[in-house]
Amino acid sequence: MNIRTVALAIFTRNDDEVLVQEFRFPGISTTFYRPVGGTVKFGENSEHTLTREIREELNQEIEVSQLVAVIENIFGVEETGHEIDFIYEAKFKNTHVYSQTELQGTEGKESYRAVWKSIHDFDETKADIKLVPDGLLALLTGKKSRDSQPIIHIRTR
């Protein structure tokens, strides 16, 4: 069991849409959505990870705007997972990406699709779709949670 460190990008369009990767698990009716990004490699900072992952998976160059949150995510779907998620605002350098309805991504040998979804689609009362990591919806909609606490990002190199 390891804790995985992840960098995720919040790309927005039309003030209420975010680009998210779609996940489905066998035997589970809920469709999960997560911002695009990936795992931080040892010795790599999370901002660099984000740039590298988007280039590798979506073949796009980006500008990272700022770190907006760090979420400790302990979850269980097929088994228990534990992630530290660095959430960044980012923009695509190629503005034509914003007019596409979906982007085809590749993670390793697996293909995936990233789609633009309204944050309102993730209403907490809907059981069939879920935005992950937990806490991200509250962050994007500006709702405060009594369970959240600020985290300071310090750069030393």
> In angstroms, what separates the terminal alpha carbons?
29 Å
Helix content: 10-25%
Radius of gyration: 15 Å
Annotation, overall tally of beta strands:
10
How can the largest sheet be summarized?
Answer: 6 strands, mixed
Q: Give the SSE order as H and E letters.
A: EEEEEHEEEEEH
Please, how many helices? 2
Give the percentage of residues in beta strands.
Answer: 35-45%
The computed structural class is mainly beta
Let me know the average pLDDT. 87
Catalogue the unreliable spans: none
Name the shape in a single word: globular
Would you spell out the secondary-structure blueprint of this structure?
Layout: E1 4-10, E2 12-13, E3 17-23, E4 31-35, E5 37-39, H1 46-58, E6 62-76, E7 80-92, E8 102-107, E9 110-118, E10 129-131, H2 136-141
Parallel strand pairs: 1-7, 4-10
Antiparallel strand pairs: 1-5, 2-3, 3-4, 3-9, 6-7, 8-9
